[in-house]
Amino acid sequence: AVNSAEIKISPLKGEKMNDTDLKRELDEVSVTEYPNPKDLDEKLTGHILERFDSGKGATAKAHNVKNEICHLSKEGIEALRRGDEQTADEKKLAMEEEMTRLQKIDLPFDAFWQFHSEAGQEVAEYHVVRWLYPMLFTDSQLRQAKMPSAKELSITPQAWLAGIIDGITEMGKLLRDRLCDDTQMTGEERLELRRRFLAIARQIKSYLDQFADSVPAVINNSRRPGYHETFRGGLGRVTGAIERAQETVIESLDRAAI
């Protein structure tokens, strides 16, 4: 068996480097001007925030809270991947606190709807991954969980549905990470993992398909331009994740049949 820590990627020059070297190289480049990554973020977004602060302080605050919820959702999902249920729960509680802060910001209705919808989508995505992770990865030490309703999460149905779409596509990414990183699994175990994902994703798509013909202005969670921001665009991403898993399962079965 090969230890995943021993796997090396050979660049064009033939040198040996592990999978963290590229990040380290970028860190070294940026650290010359921005020792703290947050300094770079502030440099890039500072002029925008300054404009908000000058006349739209509430909008700037809402942007910051929404972005914090996005970060907490991603950090919570990463904790789930590591099997760190305590940290994941802490991130979940922090998201709830930030959502409460967001609700108290005095914004025009249209702006409030957009900020709250996008933040709610991130919250729902986290809960979908929390719900599905122990189902897909049965060797996980995470306890089984239930998927909360939109009402229980205090978010709109549109945000809840969009979060389900993001959650199942995120599960597809976590599946690929596991298949790439775990060199101890047998071929049968790898095939079974893909089949489990297919079973989960198909059931969820069957649920989402009920809303495929809903009026876009009602069902879409975002008013950002682009088909990928629509509910039907999200359904397309779920379909794509299913089809990619199907193709790899078919290839595995075809090789076994030869």
Report, as a whole number of angstroms, the end-to-end distance: 25 Å
Radius of gyration: 21 Å
Low-confidence stretches: 1-15
* Run of helices and strands: HHHHHHHHHH
**Total E-strand runs:** 0
Average pLDDT, all residues? 84
Largest sheet: none
Q: What quaternary form is this?
A: single chain
Helical content band: over 70%
Brief overview, please?
The protein has 258 residues and is mainly α. The protein has helices at 21-31, 37-55, 57-82, 85-104, 109-136, 150-153, 157-181, 187-208, 216-219, 231-257. The model is unreliable at 1-15 (pLDDT under 50).
Explain what the structure shows.
The chain is mainly α. The protein is 72% helix and 0% strand. It is built from 10 helices and no strands. Helix 3 runs antiparallel to helix 4 and helix 8 packs antiparallel against helix 10. It starts with 20 loop residues before the first helix and ends with a helix.
